[in-house]
Input
Amino acid sequence: MQLQVIQRILGLLLIVFSTTLLPPALISLLYNDGAWHTFIAAFLLLLTVGVVFWFPVKDYRKELRLRDGFLVVAMFWTVLGLAGALPLALASDPHLSLTDAVFESMSGLTTTGATVIVGLDTLPKSILFYRQELQWLGGMGIIVLAVAVLPMLGVGGMQLYRAETPGPMKDSKLTPRITETAKALWYIYLSLTIACAVAYFLAGMTAFDAICHSFSTVAIGGFSTHDASMGYFDSTAIEMIAVVFMLISGVNFALHYVAWRRRSLQTYRLDAEFRFYFGLLATVAIITSTALYYTDTYIDDEAFYKGLFQAVSIGTTTGFTTAEYYYWPPFIEILLLMSSFVGGCAGSTGGGMKAIRVLMLVKQGMREITRLIHPSAHIPVRVGGKTLSPRVVDAVWGFFALYVASFTFMYLALAATGLDLITSFSAVAACMNNLGPGLGGVGASFAELGDLAKWILCFAMVLGRLEIFTLLVLITPGFWRS
Output
């Protein structure tokens, strides 16, 4: 284990993260909300800690191994969650406990969107902006950003990239150099954010709301500057813009890059994961809208718009809402929540198990049924016309097994804190899938949960964001053997 290399990288990344506290300070000065000193104090503290970590080992450079990358990513997300909580804990409005501040920070950085804050409409603008900024940084991953803008990290960029980037198929680089790959992803991410902000502004949002909501839309985060979320604007145009950008952001960013390079939309049509992802969301949206109409929950085209928005928002694990869907007929509630288990595509900012994994599980299941009929047949698993290696299939089954086991453990742990079964199940699903809103007692917010439940859910958020393997690999004895 290259502990000095890890210390150096953590110091550099903390220094980088400390600079993200300066924009909220400027927003505070611009709107004169009095919170600027909170962000400056947090900035100076984090900068100092980062320098203390980095300076003693600034000249220490050795090859970064893959397992070092896993440790850096896992440690940094833990440290970053605590560091990001500083301004929220120091602020007088909102006045959050340490547990609540860490929960809100973790929820932002992991793009979960679960909140413990009630009364968003009256908060200082700088605090609102900071929450949205946390989601935007967490969307593509602060580690990938650091690899893109900090060539001084030296060798080992690919190890960090593999450990951070979600999805089962992430070993292939878009460009020959890892820094160029990370930059390409961030250029796409930034371009989508700007386009989304402009579209929101033209549709009627204020400039502040447009920028803030573009951050959480492209990040598939779900934080809003209003308690009513997207329902605050009461605008079909804004809702449909959100639907478009949520759909785009839930797609593999590598696919966006290839489509842009080839100047062809055929890239999407030919991609098996994209077809599965889009088809599943379309099916859920149709079922939801039809059910809302025939149960008289909404009438006329309102059933379509409400159903479409919630189906895409929850299915992509964004978590925006335009209605209190947790009061809808139980069938629709469960359908929407279950769709979040699939989530977005691999290599997207979405959460969940990822569409490609679910597609592989379906293909594998169909193969086993066929084997019952033809026991001697050699039947490969194919996705998009390509035969998958047994190693990839095994990895997906391993992921699924760990996912179910982890989910069950945290579900039982939450139930043990005294929560009812619906609240416990949906809270774990909402946090582990990085969705945000749940059902029952966590439909509106997570403010009423006890501190122990919130810490369990913080672990669920990080576990889901790092896709289980990255975090759980650290507790295996073999990882620590030299």
